[in-house]
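Duplicate of #3305? Posting structure anyway:
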């Protein structure tokens, strides 16, 4: 039986994938950054390693044949950390990599973090290992977080663009299927989206209905977007990521709806309204229950 390694095992996506693989009876190893967080499967085989620590990551994935590489947290060093982990995986004898990328990944993508994903994809291609790149859209869980909990306003330079946000559960279902079957989507690049693309006025209307308070969308110019986020005193690269995530909506880079979820899993992707039905807690910060 192929041993499957799951990185980011304590994160939301890694947890969902690990649980699905375990239920399928997979030979599984979880890879987490540190023992400080609760693991999704207490009895699972576990190794601890950061992407940026090549020797430790190589040891963590030795014996793994198929590796799910969940992207690291955003940072200025993310591509370098990914590169170190990929090189360590090759040295350890990993035979296939399934990478969680981002829709629209390209060297000149509007969303600056999507550029990181493209460069990581190129590093994986250069290994000449079999791969699958699953490019997810924005997460549905992030849509309520766009609204300021005090004012109820979504601010950003998204214009009237649309976003085909996707649920973590759908990404996990697709990733699990691909990890279990090395003949499924070999050397393929696939977008993973929700069932429809929504503009932010529609998102605001849904959130208003669900929270019982007015939620509105206020389009900003790019300079206004940078100014409205200046009080966070965040690093320049981080603010650029925040602002450009809205710009990518405006340009239409996140509007394309894909058929990947249904084609791979046999079920349609989760609609945002249904996601809120099953995850009402994501509205807590807007309703005062947080």
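Output from current build:
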């Amino acid at each position: 039986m192929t041993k499957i390694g799951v990185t980011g095992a304590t994160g939301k996506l890694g947890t969902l994938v690990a649980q699905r693989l375990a239920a399928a009876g997979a030979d599984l190893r979880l890879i987490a950054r540190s023992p400080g967080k609760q693991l999704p499967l207490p009895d699972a085989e576990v190794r601890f390693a950061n992407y940026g620590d090549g020797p430790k990551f190589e040891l963590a994935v030795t014996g793994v044949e198929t590796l799910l590489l969940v992207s690291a947290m955003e940072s200025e060093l993310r591509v370098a950390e990914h590169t170190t982990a990929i090189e360590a995986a090759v040295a350890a004898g990993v035979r296939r990599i399934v990478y969680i990328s981002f829709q629209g990944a390209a060297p000149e993508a509007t969303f600056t973090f999507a550029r990181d994903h493209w460069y990581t994809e190129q590093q994986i291609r250069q290994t000449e290992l079999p791969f699958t790149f699953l490019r997810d859209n924005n997460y549905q869980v992030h849509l309520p977080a766009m609204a300021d909990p005090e004012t109820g306003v979504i601010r950003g330079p998204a214009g009237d663009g649309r976003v085909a946000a996707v649920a973590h559960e759908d990404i996990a279902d697709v990733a699990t299927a691909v990890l279990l079957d090395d003949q499924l989507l070999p050397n393929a690049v696939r977008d993973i989206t929700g069932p429809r693309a929504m503009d932010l006025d529609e998102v605001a209307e849904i959130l208003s209905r669900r929270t019982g308070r007015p939620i509105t969308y206020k389009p900003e110019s790019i300079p206004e977007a940078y100014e409205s986020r200046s009080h966070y005193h965040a690093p320049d690269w981080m603010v650029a990521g925040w602002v450009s995530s809205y710009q990518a909506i405006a340009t239409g880079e996140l509007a394309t709806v894909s058929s990947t979820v249904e084609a791979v899993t046999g079920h349609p992707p989760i609609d945002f309204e249904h996601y809120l039905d099953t995850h009402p807690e994501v509205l807590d910060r807007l309703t005062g229950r947080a």
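Confirmed duplicate; merging threads. The first strand starts at residue 3 and ends at 7. The mean pLDDT is 96.
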